[in-house]
Design a protein that fits this description.
The chain is an alpha/beta fold. It has a domain at 465-787: Glycogen Phosphorylase B (Rossmann fold). 47% of the residues lie in helices and 16% in strands. The strands form 6 sheets. Strands 1, 4, 7, 8, 11, 12, 13, 14, 18 and 19 form a 10-stranded mixed sheet that branches. Strands 22-21-20-23-24-25 form a 6-stranded parallel sheet, with helices on both faces. Strand 11 (206-218) and strand 12 form a beta hairpin. The longest helix is centred in the first third of the chain and has 29 residues, at 30-58. The chain binds N-[(biphenyl-4-yloxy)acetyl]-beta-D-glucopyranosylamine. N-[(biphenyl-4-yloxy)acetyl]-beta-D-glucopyranosylamine binds at residues 115-118, 121, 267, 269-270, 273, 279, 321, 357-358, 363, 365, 432, 461, 649-653, 671.
């Protein structure tokens, strides 16, 4: 890629506007300029993209395919500019043209093709694969509607459709010539072949075309461009039926509509799984397109027998959502490529690897047998056979497991258990943080662990430091480069060199001023969005993540209410001013989560306008939390709230993003918080509350008494009574359901149990913040150790530990 100068870029934007739209620069809107810019960048990417793919072909490189129902890529304009080495010139050019660069970049609609952590992880992994020159691609779904847009109206979450493709999406290329046919329903007929083996024919199926749209994944200034291939469902027109069917016009329209539904929208749940048939259709649509595509490319490019596919192809499945890929690969290999069961099984289990992202039992996928069999009759037959062989193996070869068969079987209780299918059909099973993998091995999946101890491994999550530090926080990134040089950008672990400077007071002042600028920018943004003026010198205390009971936003807002009560009792109280910032979407059908959003907003509307607490306490709920909003909030955070009930948060990745931007974590010993703690220790973060062992012990032995705490802790009683009596808001707005959920259901997420230690931890936060110098030391220490959480490190571990993949560094 040959970068432009700022002036060259300016001229080129003007030229494109003229040629493409007949526009003069003065007439161009920010959107026009954005499209002109995006088309220039796309043009820059194109040659490297072609070259990279050609090289992989020529050198017959081993490739990894990351299959995921979600890729939460957010906006690409800035990261593509950064990775192409054009960001600084572009900013200069846009300024010279009289535009605010951020206003131009903001024209791009976020691609919100994911719910939260799992989808964002997939996007970070793609960035690292390309930046490290690994041949690795994503396969996903091109949802016409992404995750809903959230509005807060009278404190309530309201969902609006996210029609992100309203304007053309400049990064995608439609590849109609590579479309693939997908079959649903129909009947399976069995024939005996001459050699005595059986042949299966799947007939009278409903046919759907899968059309790929390719998005380039640009590596950081290295000319590597991989592909994110998103599949879109379209009606299939068989060649002979192309003309003269007017009488069926309306029937055809209806049919067309039902097909396009398959890739119509992203399911907005990230925990409680509803077994909707359309979701199962989406999953099979993704894996059938991807697997057929992978096998087709393997045959075209490698000239090797299919038995050798695992030498050249590895398929990582992001949770169980793509686990039908396992029987789908069996189907293609046997029914279309004539491999025997044993040969096909060897290839399949040599190619698939599975990542688990949760131990919450509500989130473990199962599908009803009738639904699976009706929609996917041939796939169901194969799953059935996988199950038979697996159970037979247990019965005859693992006698000690006979009693456990009902808990291990892939088909049990009339349902297909997707995690069991994924474990049986993969050569690798990994968790996403050390404690999570240990819980999988020793609790949730212990039956499988003792059967296949070698399959299980840990790969702690990571985040791309390019997007989350270099791009989102240029002030801090520039300062770091001034201090330790630019090598950390390619080798993020070198951030550790910052540890040499933690006693350098003048330098710490500079870190403070970088943070202060980001806080000022966020304060301005908050003011513009909400009309509320927050004190940019207050502690910015941030909790941004999906709303879920286990993530305990409730504990956070209880702390806020406690502080408010204290200040009401004693307005002169000497406290460090605090701004609590929340961002969270609730699944539309998750009632209690929506009540908690309403509570946060109700508390905000009282606290923010109460003169008694003026300047000391503010509560901000920023609506429509998404990737772009995260990029604004994270650089400004002082405190990162990571307060899940221990054992429940598989890893967390927001914790890593805020650490990398110099925030201090207040958190439980859960997920990756434990690994943050390994690095920075008690001195540099605020750990509180029950451990995972204690939580699991309580679950085993019947819990603790929430009522006891209610009766003995006045602070707790006062808060809960305020909820019940409708003291927040009017009589109409009361929070009885939250009250009863805690007291009648005995506080399943230990909010009351952890209340006291959480309050104490916050007191320590406040004391620590008062000592500016020591706070800054801790902040810089966090940045210094955060390099280990770069997804580059994570991807290296996947590449060497699971994929056996080589970096493809070949200079032209
Ligand atoms: C499944 C079926 C139907 C509808 C939705 C789903 C579904 C979608 C997303 C279920 C779970 C989903 O995501 C779970 C998730 O995001 N887990 C998070 O994964 C992160 C990356 O590994 C971890 O950091 C988080 O701790 C974990 O909660």
């Amino acid at each position: 890629m040959q970068p432009y100068t700022a002036d060259g870029l300016k001229d080129e934007i003007a030229r494109r506007l003229q040629v493409d739209k007949g526009q003069k620069l003065e007439e161009a809107s920010p959107k026009d300029v954005y499209y002109a810019l995006a088309s220039i960048v796309h043009g820059e990417i194109m040659p490297s993209w072609n070259k990279t793919q050609q090289k992989y072909k020529d050198k017959k490189a081993k490739q990894v395919y990351y299959l995921s129902m979600e890729f939460l890529i957010g906006s690409l304009i800035k990261s593509n500019l950064l990775n192409c080495g054009m960001l600084n010139q572009t900013i200069e050019a846009l300024r010279k043209m009289g535009f605010h660069p951020e206003e131009i970049f903001a024209q791009e609609q976020d691609a919100a093709l994911g719910n939260g952590g799992l989808g964002r992880l997939a996007a970070c992994f793609l960035d690292s694969l390309s930046s490290l020159d690994y041949p690795g691609h994503g396969h996903g779904i091109r949802y016409r509607y992404g995750l809903f847009e959230q509005r807060i109206i009278h404190g309530n979450q309201v969902e609006l459709p996210d029609y992100w493709l309203k304007d053309a999406y400049p990064w995608e290329n439609r590849k109609e010539e590579e479309a693939i046919l997908i079959h649903f329903r129909g009947e399976v007929h069995m024939f005996k072949k001459n050699d005595g083996s059986l042949e299966f024919k799947h007939e009278n199926t409903d046919k759907v075309m899968a059309v790929p749209y390719d998005i380039p994944v640009v590596g950081y200034q290295n000319s590597t461009v991989n592909t994110l291939r998103l599949w879109s469902a379209e009606p299939y027109f068989p060649p002979e039926e192309n003309e003269g069917q007017e009488d069926d016009f309306y029937h055809d329209l209806e049919h067309q509509h039902s097909i396009e539904q398959i890739t119509g929208f992203l399911y907005p749940d990230d925990s409680n799984i509803e077994g909707k048939e359309l979701r199962l259709k989406q999953q099979y649509f993704l894996v059938s397109s991807s697997i057929q595509n992978i096998i087709r490319q393997f045959k075209e490019n490698y000239q090797l027998p299919l038995s050798r596919l695992p030498e050249k192809v590895v398929i990582q499945i992001n949770d169980t959502h793509p686990s039908l890929g396992i029987p789908e690969m069996m189907r293609v290999l046997m029914d279309e490529e004539n491999l025997s069961w044993d040969a096909a099984w060897k290839v399949t289990t040599g190619a698939f690897a599975y990542t688990n992202h949760t131990t919450l039992s509500e989130a473990l996928e199962t599908w009803p047998v009738e639904m699976t069999e009706g929609l996917l009759p041939r796939i169901y037959m194969i799953i059935h056979e996988i199950n038979e062989r697996f159970c037979r193996d247990l019965w005859f070869n693992h006698k000690e497991k006979r009693e456990e068969i009902p808990q291990l079987a892939v088909i049990a209780d009339g349902r297909v258990h997707m995690a069991r299918l994924a474990i049986v059909g993969s050569f690798s099973v990994n968790g996403v943080a050390r404690i999570h993998t240990e819980i999988l091995k020793n609790q949730e999946m212990s039956g499988f662990y003792s059967l296949y101890p070698k399959k299980f491994n840990n790969k702690t999550n990571g985040i791309t430091h390019r997007r989350w530090l270099l791009q989102a926080n240029p002030g801090l990134a520039g300062l770091i480069t001034d201090v330790i040089g630019p090598n950390w950008i390619r080798r993020p672990k070198q951030l550790i060199s910052l540890m040499k400077y933690t006693k350098d007071r003048p330098l710490l002042e500079k870190f403070a001023s970088a943070k202060q600028q980001n806080k000022q920018a966020l304060a301005n943004f908050i003011h513009q969005r909400t009309g509320i003026a927050v004190d940019p010198h207050s502690i910015f205390d941030v909790q941004i993540k999906r709303l879920h009971e286990y993530k305990r936003q409730l504990l956070n807002i209880f702390h806020v209410i406690y502080l408010y009560n204290e200040l009401k009792d004693n307005p002169q109280l000497d406290v460090v001013p605090r701004t609590f910032i929340f961002g969270a979407k609730a699944a539309p059908s998750y009632y209690l989560a929506k009540e908690i959003i309403k509570l946060i907003n109700t508390v905000a509307s009282i606290v923010n306008y109460d003169k008694d607490v003026k300047d000391k306490l503010k509560v901000i709920f920023l609506e429509n939390y998404n990737v772009s909003l995260a990029e604004k909030i994270i650089p400004a955070a002082d405190i990162s709230e990571q307060i899940s009930t221990a054992s429940k948060e598989a890893s967390g990745t927001g914790n890593m993003k805020m650490m990398m931007n110099g925030a201090l974590t207040i958190g439980t010993m859960d997920g990756a918080n434990i690994e943050i703690h390994d690095l920075v220790g008690d001195d540099n973060m605020f750990i509180f509350g029950l451990s995972a062992e204690q939580v699991m012990d309580y679950y085993r032995h019947g819990g603790y008494s929430a009522t006891d705490i209610y009766n003995t802790d006045d602070r707790v009683k006062r808060i809960l009574d305020q909820l019940k009596l409708g003291e927040f808001g009017s009589q109409e707005i009361e929070f009885k359901d939250i009250y009863y959920n805690i007291l009648s259901h005995n506080d399943p997420y230990f909010v009351l149990k952890d209340f006291e230690p959480y309050m104490e931890a916050h007191e320590i936060v406040e004391r620590t913040y008062r000592d500016t110098y020591s706070w800054l030391q801790k902040s810089v220490t966090n940045i210094a150790y955060s390099g280990k959480f770069s997804s580059d490190h994570t991807i290296q571990q996947y590449a060497t530990g699971i994929w056996n993949l080589k970096q493809f560094k070949e200079k032209e």
